[in-house]
Amino acid sequence: MNMYEIIEEKKLSKNLSKEEIDYFIKGYTNGEIPDYQVSALLMAIYFNGLNTEETYYLTDAMVNSGDRIDLSAIDGIKVDKHSTGGVGDTTTLVVGPLVASCGVPFAKMSGRGLGHTGGTIDKLESIPGMNIDLSIAEFIENANAIKIAICGQTGDITPADKKLYALRDATATVDNVSLISSSILSKKIAVGADALILDVKTGSGAFMKTLEEARELSKMMVDLGHKFNRKTVALITNMDEPLGYAVGNALEVIEAINTLRGEGPRDLIELCLNLSSKLLVLSGKFNSEIEARKLLNENISAGLGLEKFKEFVSMQGGDISYINDLSKFELSSIKREIYSNSEGYVKKIDALEIGEVSKNLGAGRETKDSSIDLGAGILLNKKIDDFVKVGDLLATVYTEKESEIERAKNTILSAYKIGEENKDEYKLVLDEID
């Protein structure tokens, strides 16, 4: 067996065996197979695809390329969630505390933002003192003590995925369903939660631009989850406009806290309740989502979700005075308001353009090594189906980059499509794959 033969087989659309995939992943991870051969194989996979069995073999090989975290010491059914990335996607900071407030352990390792999509770890670091570099022992201890732990991914989990992703990024082979699925699921399987909800975004601000693409990806990931004996469900959700009103790290934390107070945006509350209720059913806590939602709403009204968030922040070294007094969050010093120059109903808000503006204002990264401004971002004032008059406030931007203000203004005005009232109401949850 050699790499040339494996490339040749996939070039001819033949199925790769478990042994061949193990050979390629092990050799590449160890530095024995060069980038140029793996690049050739990735391009062959991109054009000729992998079937479900091959994708399972690839995922398994990547899981076994590094450490596997044993979470069996955490009491109960451990649950986790993953979003494929969007704009204003603050759900983890709401779903985690809500699920934990119901007595179900929420154990999640999260990443940082890249490009126009935000990262949970960056958002948490908006809270002074917040420690996201937990040891595995601390992670397990916290999950047992307060039913929630969120930390950054360790360097020894799925090293093959890290190498492959960097190469895919450089060779235009990122957007392949099997490669995306194996990348996401390998990290989730390696961490070891028992049940997983996948929030698969589709639309202008998502990687999957069409509903058909999102369905294909969702089905592949759910199938993989089941093959690894994980209870797995995917929700396909709309990212044709940003989720909620806040885009940017500190701004999104503030919005998450308000949502836990029961004062958040309607779309963010609805999605968080949807995701949380499904996790509670997957955990075995409830038999129906109706029962689960009842308890979730009760916990929001009683302030239990917010108290759990405070417990979580305190347990990981964060300053909870910021949760009690949101004015303590430091937003960027330059603040500009953007006003509408037309009248009508908001037909669409291009989420990708809003995400790119937020990134350019300092809230996001061009590369994984870029620094970010935790106080930068955009606070939207109008959403799809809202009526707007000339001179109405559309959005407020926060930045330390004076040179970006004019471009931000023009792009935000362009992102808002204003005209006649939409015939159909904006639908947030588009499908469910289980």
Commentary on this structure:
There is one protein chain. With 434 residues, the chain is of the alpha/beta class. The chain has 3 domains: 3-49, Transferase, Pyrimidine Nucleoside Phosphorylase, Chain C (Transferase, Pyrimidine Nucleoside Phosphorylase, Chain A, domain 3, Up-down Bundle); 79-156 and 174-324, 3-Layer(aba) Sandwich (Pyrimidine Nucleoside Phosphorylase, Chain A, domain 2), CATH 3.40.1030.10; 330-419, Alpha-Beta Complex (Aldehyde Oxidoreductase, domain 3), CATH 3.90.1170. 46% of the residues lie in helices and 15% in strands. It contains 17 helices and 13 strands. The strands form 4 sheets. It has a 4-stranded mixed beta sheet, with helices on both faces. Strands 6-9-11-7 form a 4-stranded antiparallel beta sheet, with helices on both faces. Strands 10-8-12 form a 3-stranded antiparallel beta sheet. Helix 10 (211-227) links the parallel strand 4 (195-202) and strand 5. Helix 2 runs parallel beside helix 4 and helix 9 runs parallel beside helix 10 (211-227). It starts with a helix and ends with a strand. The mean pLDDT is 93. It holds the Pfam family PYNP_C. Catalyzes phosphorolysis of the pyrimidine nucleosides uridine, thymidine and 2'-deoxyuridine with the formation of the corresponding pyrimidine base and ribose-1-phosphate. This is Pyrimidine-nucleoside phosphorylase.
CATH superfamily of the largest domain: Nucleoside phosphorylase/phosphoribosyltransferase catalytic domain
Instruction: Determine the fraction of residues in helical runs and give it as a percent range.
Output: 40-55%
Give the percentage of residues in beta strands: 15-25%
Order of helices and strands: HHHHEHEHHEHHEHEEHHHHHEEHEEEHEE
And the CATH topology of the largest domain?
Pyrimidine Nucleoside Phosphorylase, Chain A, domain 2
Function: Catalyzes phosphorolysis of the pyrimidine nucleosides uridine, thymidine and 2'-deoxyuridine with the formation of the corresponding pyrimidine base and ribose-1-phosphate.
Keywords: Glycosyltransferase, Transferase
Enzyme class: transferase
Subunit structure: Homodimer.
